[in-house]
Design brief:
Elements: E1 5-11, E2 19-25, H1 44-61, E3 68-73, E4 76-78, E5 89-94, E6 102-103, E7 106-107, H2 109-116, E8 119-121, E9 124-132, H3 138-141, E10 159-170, H4 181-188, H5 193-213, E11 217-228, E12 231-235, E13 245-248, E14 251-253, H6 256-265, H7 267-283, H8 301-319, H9 329-337
Length: about 350
């Protein structure tokens, strides 16, 4: 797993009831599925917490069920608007997360759902795309004409899609893979795949509108959901600069900035990651990291500062509030452009 947030359980979920707990957001980051990188980005965790909380509260106001309960402020759980300093903890309802048995890259979803019953975190990521940015995995899996685009090849700039595209990928496997609709339906278990797509499109619409109000363009993103007693609820964290890609005046604003920076400045490590993933897939090995011949190097201080300002200035703009001590979004973007 490559999560950069910690998990606190206060009351565990059972077969027939939700539990309670919290996400504790760290300043760690992960790119290329590596897991925790050798450095951290100050205020990144609080940025994700605030932006995610704002989106959950918007979803709840539109009648879309979620696992969100509020942000943690001392001993209290409160709405985001009640805090005066950036929060780092988000209170949530908990569902069951059964083990996913596997031998190498063969995963047993039947066994997963035998334990999951009517209360489980759906083992899928539901991806929605409004554009196809540079770096999008879609460019390597499909041709532009498949989406009604009049290009022979993908151009070297972001491309707007005529209609949002929804895809499904695995969540708990060592390396994510995109799925056919029938395969995704099987992996989803009792959760209906059409309902999952509907929820994803609703979330996409809401985040797109919120971003536009802040002068941001929402390019793509993903959600995770839980299934409880016949209902799908949005889970994990929604609409942040880690889960989604945004841009401002043509400049990418998301974790993709860090990903592309590593491609430019540490190409040998990126190539080693790709080679290890390919070798692991060929040999049926689940953990590709043990096959990687290089480790990543830390970022330079000025890069860490620029990425910190991207997260905090972007969050201020998105939530419409100066929650962080940060430069204006325009200033932060100009610094990012110079990296």
């Amino acid at each position: 797993m490559t999560s950069v947030k910690e998990f606190r359980v206060e009351e565990p979920a059972s077969a027939d009831s939700l539990g309670r707990g919290a996400f504790v957001f760290t300043d760690d980051y992960s790119v290329f599925d590596w897991g925790k990188m050798p450095d951290s980005i100050p205020n990144k965790g609080a940025s994700l917490c605030a932006m995610g909380a704002a989106n959950f509260e918007l979803l709840e106001s539109e009648g879309i069920p979620t696992h969100y309960r509020g942000v943690v402020n001392g001993a209290d759980v409160v709405p985001l608007g009640d805090v005066v300093t950036p929060p780092r903890e988000m209170a949530i309802d908990l569902t069951q997360v059964p083990e996913l048995p596997h031998e190498g890259r063969e995963y047993d979803y039947t066994a997963f759902h035998e334990v999951a019953g009517e209360n489980y975190l759906i083992p899928l990521e539901i991806v929605f795309r409004n554009t196809v940015p540079v770096g999008s995995s879609l460019r390597g899996r499909a041709a532009p004409e498949e989406f009604g685009l009049d290009y022979a090849d993908w151009p070297d700039e972001p491309v707007d899609l005529p209609e949002p595209v929804v895809e499904f990928s695995t969540k708990y496997e060592e390396s994510d893979r995109y799925l056919s609709r029938d395969n995704a339906d099987y992996i989803a278990g009792k959760a209906d795949i059409d309902d999952l797509e509907t929820v994803a499109r609703e979330v996409n619409d809401l985040v797109t509108e919120q971003a536009a109000a802040a002068g941001l363009k929402h390019e793509d993103g993903k959600i995770e959901c839980l299934y409880y007693d016949g209902e799908i609820r949005v889970a994990d964290v929604v609409g942040t600069f880690d889960e989604n890609r945004f841009s401002f005046e043509g400049q990418q604003l998301s974790k993709e900035v860090v990903r592309q920076y590593h491609k430019r400045t540490q190409p040998e490590w990126v190539d080693a990651v790709d080679a290890a993933k390919a070798e692991a897939k060929a040999e049926g090995v689940a953990d590709w990291r043990e096959l990687c011949e290089r480790d990543p190097e830390p970022l330079s201080g000025h890069v860490v500062d620029a990425v910190r300002d991207m997260y905090t200035a972007g969050t201020n703009a998105y939530i419409g509030r100066e929650l962080f001590d940060a430069p204006s979004l325009s200033e932060a973007v100009e610094t990012i452009r110079s990296l």
